TrEMBL record:
It comes from Flaviaesturariibacter flavus. It is found in: Cell membrane. One of its GO terms (biological process) is cell division. It is a multi-pass membrane protein. Pfam families: FtsX, FtsX_ECD. Residues 169-277 form the ABC3 transporter permease C-terminal domain. This is Cell division protein FtsX. It comes from the Bacteria. Belongs to the ABC-4 integral membrane protein family. FtsX subfamily.
Length: 290
């Protein structure tokens, strides 16, 4: 009987390898989706915080009043960065943007001094921007406040649609991941059905039978998560070689968090499926195993 048990374990080794491979592939797919989700949020934050608000100042404003206004803007909870642009700097930016140098036919620089600032991600929406604009325009040294209303409006709509699509994909893939991992583990446990039944017939308790299989499930789930994360890391680094701009998107802390998520998912589903399969074969009669 001991020889039969060892033979069953040997026959089960290929199935364990295939289960690790199958779970790894599924977790890799989920990891890719998770990485896209993380970077989609970072991209959303980047584009939102790139929206610039220009506060154009009236002519003849002294430096003290300008500095007081700039400090009051910087003190707003919604503001992330703020900078002052004088006439000469504005002219250089104007020409650098591809516009014609008007100094060739005009003696005076018509561009106004301005205080430009960017908001934090959570404050970039049409309502809050309009409130900030209204508040700033009440200041007597402010001539005009401008920002791209069309860009803000379209950005909000596009991000909302993209978020819904990504949420639908996450739900669909999550369901698929659970089903695929469960089926993979059930197929792996199928090769151990006679070993499970033999141990039961010689008087082994349910806990004694399930313990080594559950430990193997935890190890296989953790191994699959580690391999999937390593492959994902290599793929990301290879892509960064072709697209250097992706370097700015990589966040070590978020990637480690993604690994922990894959680890929990891999171990949890693998352990649950293994335990369920053990109970199934323990309840079956010997003739039903064939």
């Amino acid at each position: 009987m001991a020889q039969s048990g060892r033979a069953s374990l040997k026959r089960g080794k290929p199935s364990y390898f295939m289960s690790v491979l199958g779970v790894t592939l599924v977790l890799f797919l989920l990891g890719v989706l998770g990485w896209l989700g993380i970077n989609a949020k970072k991209l959303m934050q980047y584009y939102k915080e790139s929206i610039e608000v220009q506060v154009y100042l009236k002519n003849g404003i002294n430096d003290r009043d300008r500095a007081l206004l700039q400090d009051s803007i910087a003190a707003l909870p919604a503001v992330k960065t703020v900078r002052y642009t004088d006439k000469e700097a504005a002219k250089k930016e104007w020409v650098k943007s591809g516009n014609e140098d008007f100094s060739e036919f005009l003696d005076n620089n018509l561009l106004p001094n301005s205080i430009n600032f960017n908001l934090k991600e959570e404050f970039v929406d049409s309502t809050q921007l309009m409130n900030i604009k209204t508040r700033l325009q009440q200041n007597p040294i402010v001539d005009e406040v401008q920002y791209s209303k069309a860009v803000v409006g379209s950005m909000q709509r596009n991000f909302r649609i993209a978020s819904l699509i990504l949420l639908a994909i996450v739900i669909g893939v999550s369901i698929m991941v659970i089903i695929l991992i469960d089926n993979t583990i059930r197929l792996a446990m199928f090769s151990n059905r006679f070993l499970i039944k033999t141990m039961q017939m010689v008087g082994a308790t349910r806990g004694f039978i399930a313990r080594p299989l559950n430990i193997r499930a935890v190890i296989n789930g953790a191994l699959s998560a580690a391999i999937a994360t390593a492959v994902l890391y290599i793929v990301i680094r290879l892509l960064e070689g072709f697209f250097p701009g992706m370097n700015a998107l990589f966040d070590t802390n978020l990637f480690l968090l993604l690994f922990l998520g894959l680890l929990v998912i891999g171990v949890s589903i693998t352990l649950f499926s293994t335990y369920r399969s053990v109970l199934k074969y323990l309840r079956m009669k010997l003739d039903e195993l064939y």
